Amino acid sequence: MSGSEDSRRPRVLVVGYNAFDITIPVGDFPAPDQKCEVSRMILGGGGPGATAALALAKLGARVKLMTPLTDDLFGQLQRRELLDGGVDLSLSPTVRGHQSPQAVILVDEERSHRTIFWTRGDVPCLSRQLVGADILHDIDLLYTDGHEAEVSVHLARLASKSGLPVVMDAGSVRDGSGELVACCTDVVSSRGFAPALTGLQGPLDALHALRQMGPDRVAMTFGSAGSIGLDGDRTIAVPAFSVPVTDTTGAGDAFHAGYAFALARGEGLRRCLEWGSAVAGLKCRDWGGRRGLPDLSEVLNLLGEGVRRSLDDLQTYLPSRGI
């Protein structure tokens, strides 16, 4: 990599959740007390923060991850996968004698639906004592998945004082979500987060209310349809790319990683949403949350030559006000 290319590599600190996933493609579910043979089981790391960290590293970012890792088998496998993927774990403590978060994901191959069974394990939250005064001195962007709210809010406030962008993967409302939203520059909401937090069911109404809480830019994702965002008075709609889909597990994590990577490189909201769409779409080509994650050249190729879905697919989510 040349010096000029290396200088464009964003330096990102990711704070959030990790888990270990077992993804199982299934056809019909068996009757009670019956066995069901499956074609394969895909094992690998998961969790929104950890998966986004790996996605960012594969794109070329220099990534530090803050997440509690365990010393059980699943924690060891997670650590190996993340380190092999180029993620810096120097800020991720190992908590001994605890059970890792885990998930079993049953994927209906015919209808592309998922059923998830998961456990949070018994891993304690990150301690504020891990946050040193100089933790952001070599960071271009802070990324949080909404977990580890106490540490995330503290870091987001430090980032704000330093003028750093803070991206929030807003998947589900949790304790501290409102406080964290207010500290972020960019909040990318799932279809359910903004309505649940603001009490407004219309997507645009919910996004306007979300932005009034503090972020400069807000957006909402609609899976295979695409995404919409608010930047000032502008409403931006970005259809998803038309790509072959094998498994959507981790697509949201990939979307947020692509968005954050583009933002750290100085892109505007529309381009950030396009990057998110490209990274998410390419991830869906393979099983599990991480096996399909693309490198930078693959994303650039899709951005330049990819075919998009119809804008009408997004319009169906916005019947009251439109785009």
Question: What can be said about this structure in brief?
Answer:
With 323 residues, the chain is of the alpha/beta class.
3D architecture notes:
There is one protein chain. The chain is an alpha/beta fold and 323 residues long. The chain has one domain: 3-Layer(aba) Sandwich (UDP-N-acetylmuramoyl-L-alanine:D-glutamate ligase), CATH 3.40.1190. The chain is built from 11 helices and 14 strands. The chain has an 8-stranded mixed sheet with strand order 4-1-9-10-11-12-13-14, with helices on both faces. A 4-stranded mixed sheet has the order 3-2-7-8. A hairpin with a 4-residue loop joins β12 and β13. α8 packs antiparallel against α9. It is globular and about 55 Å long.
Provide the β-strand percentage band.
Answer: 15-25%
Overall average pLDDT:
92
- How many structural units, i.e. domains? 1
**End-to-end distance:** 41 Å
Fourth CATH level, the homologous superfamily: Ribokinase
Main structural class: alpha/beta
Strand arrangement within the widest β-sheet reads: 4-1-9-10-11-12-13-14
Largest sheet: 8 strands, mixed
Q: What characteristic shape results from the CA principal axes?
A: globular
Radius of gyration: 19 Å
Assigned CATH class = Alpha Beta
Number of helices: 11
Q: Kindly identify the CATH topology.
A: UDP-N-acetylmuramoyl-L-alanine:D-glutamate ligase
User: Which regions contain 5 or more consecutive residues with pLDDT less than 50?
Assistant: 1-5
Q: What fraction, in percent, of the residue positions are helical?
A: 25-40%
Order of helices and strands: HEEEHEEHEEEEHEHEHHEEEHHHH
**Which second-level CATH architecture applies?**
3-Layer(aba) Sandwich
Strands, count: 14
